[in-house]
Amino acid sequence: MKLGKKFIAIALAGMMVVGTAAMSLADGSKVVTLGVDLSAEQKQTMLDYFGVKKDEVMLIDVSNAEERQYLEGVASEAQLGRRTISCAYVEPTSSGGINVKTANLTWVTGSMIASTLTTAGLTDANVIAAAPYAVSGTGALTGVIKAFEDASGESLDETKKELANEELVTTGDLGDEIGQDKATGIVNDVKNEVIKNGTSDTVQIADIINNVTNNYNITLTPEQIEALTSLMQKIGQQNYDYNSIKDTLKNVQYNVSENLAAAGESVDTVGIFEKIKHWFSGLFGSDTGILSQTDESALGSDAVISATQQDIENAANEALTQVNDAYNKAKDAGVFDKIKAWFENLISGL
Asked: Does the N-terminal or the C-terminal CB of the chain have fewer CB atoms within 10 Å?
């Protein structure tokens, strides 16, 4: 893969210049929310993991009562629990979409959080959602949203925040049946089409759900279709700016596709050129900021870490491999000879 190595070297050199400029565009304060039921020692562990000191960030406690404000009536009592453990670290940015890193969250994933945050009305931010030990992460969204509002000084629409929490639970419940990645991909892709097309029509939504689930080789139950349709109808009635959230929705689609491929699934909703576009946009248009400053050792060797940012070199090599394969297939099929002959005929006729 000599071509790939040279390509990456050139791209990384450019990234050093562009990345520096991108970092200067980050705005807003950095805010950390801590689960109120954590011990003082556990809170310090989370600060160590985030790589910050108390006097460097705004610290806010989040309680179970605050989680219940948006989740009660949507999540089950078992999902709600009685204690708040999840923590969040949020850095508003001016571009790059929503990038998420999670640690020790078992029921929700980084891609799931990124997608639901677009429903809440976020557009650009770096987000870390984590806990000192394994938890479901059901209430993680509450801390993230609260941190974002305090960091940016922007109050998000209450209806959209409620819908984001409903989407998180809907996706998580679906994930229990078909797997987290497929559930995230289906909900994210259906939402992408609903917002892109500006529809809240149940017939159109049903068609979108059918098309998307076919892409993932999944058949939903009538109850699952009803829950997803109801959610999407409500999302479709809101006023979303598709252009401001499409990058995040596409990134989630890409990450889900990569995860499924790594697990040996044949599902692939992202084409070759879309992957190349995604890689370039991630390389030059995203400042990962706080996501690259975490101290993984603070949580111990058993911590489960995930992130929406894919490894640059692996993504580049994969895209280059697919382009080379496509080139070779076209060459073997005589496509280039046909193009050459077409141009020769065109020129001879002038």
From this structure: C
Partner residues linked to 33 by β-bridges: 60, 88
Res 20: pLDDT: 35
pLDDT in tens, 106-160: 999 999 999 999 999 999 999 999 999 999 988 899 999 999 999 999 999 999 9
Q: Side-chain half-sphere of 321: how many Cα atoms within 13 Å?
A: 7
Phi-psi region of 220 (alpha: psi -120 to 50; beta: other; left: phi over 0): beta
For 293, the enclosing helix (H) or strand (E) is: none
The 3-class secondary structure across 254-266, one letter per residue, is HHHHHHHHHCCCC
Residue 14: pLDDT band (50, 70, 90) is very low
Dump the DSSP string for 160-199.
HHHHHHHHHHHHHHHHHHH-HHHHHHHHHHHHHHHHHHT-
Q: Which of 84, 86, 89 is nearest to 31 (CA)?
A: 89
- Using only C-alpha atoms, the chain has a radius of gyration, in whole angstroms, of 22
Query: Rounded mean pLDDT of 191-200?
Result: 97
Helical H runs in 179-311? 180-197, 202-215, 222-236, 242-262, 272-285
Q: Hey, CA dihedral for 326, 320, 310, 236, is it positive or negative?
A: negative
3-state secondary structure of 288: coil
pTM score, whole prediction? 0.78
Pairing state of beta strands 125-135 and 87-92? Answer: antiparallel
Closest by Cα among 137, 145, 193 to 169: 137
Q: For residue range 286-341, list pLDDT tens digits in order.
A: 567 899 899 999 999 999 888 886 544 444 445 555 555 665 666 666 666 767 66
The vertex-153 CA angle with 149 and 157, nearest 5°, equals: 50
Which pLDDT score, from 0 to 100, does residue 226 have? 96
The pLDDT of residue 125: 93
